[in-house]
Amino acid sequence: MSNRKPWTTKEVQFLKDNISKMTYKEIGMKIGRSKQSVACKVNREGFTKGKKNNRWTEKEKEFLIKHAATMSRIEIAEYLNKSEQSVFNQIWYLRQSGIKVPEKLKTRNTKYGEKKCPNCEEERLIGEVSTWDSKNNTTAMAYYCNTCFTEFFKNGEILPPLEEKISGKKKTYEMLDMGIWDLTELSERTGLRKSTVCEYRKRYKKEKGAI
Questions:
Q1: How far apart (Å, rounded) are the C-alpha atoms in residues 81 and 19?
Q2: Given this model, what pLDDT does residue 119 score?
Q3: Cα dihedral: 51, 53, 57, 62 (round 10)
Q4: Neighbours of 178 (CB within 10 A)
Q5: Are 141 and 130 in contact (CB under 8 A)?
Q6: Of the given ranges (78-82, 85-89, 164-168), which has the lowest mean pLDDT?
Q7: What distance, in Å, lies between the first and last C-alpha atoms of the chain?
């Protein structure tokens, strides 16, 4: 037998009136329900947050980039009063534009001081990342500091600023110019997702008239 408490008309109206003003957690606290209960009700009723939240501001993008490694997409969505899908899409758009958005860091069980940021000497919030090694023209394993946003190799060499890095599209086109068409190999060489290199490969074919 279900222990769910039926929603009252007053609660539903409060949810509808405040969905674009408050997070699910805040609404839940006001009406005595959990964040999950509020989220489920929103999905069942088909409520949407107002259009005013559809466009991302520069401050929202900065917040997303800064906290992508330490907050989940759901947490970021609730904080910015956006949908989880909107956060997912924005991360994709930023990465397509060549802006580094770190992956969510997983808890690491490494020895103290095993990996230290050469820029700020952080030893705790260090995550592994796949990056582009322009010297060897290939992808390489590196580390990412969530404190100062510095990427570095195991030997402590700091990688160039993000804006100086070769774009994903250019990397893919260079591989295609070399005759590399296999999606798996393209993904491994560029460090991009297969879906991304697949899209770039389609564009390449259209632009170059390749068969």
A1: 8
A2: 81
A3: -150
A4: 10
A5: yes
A6: 164-168
A7: 61
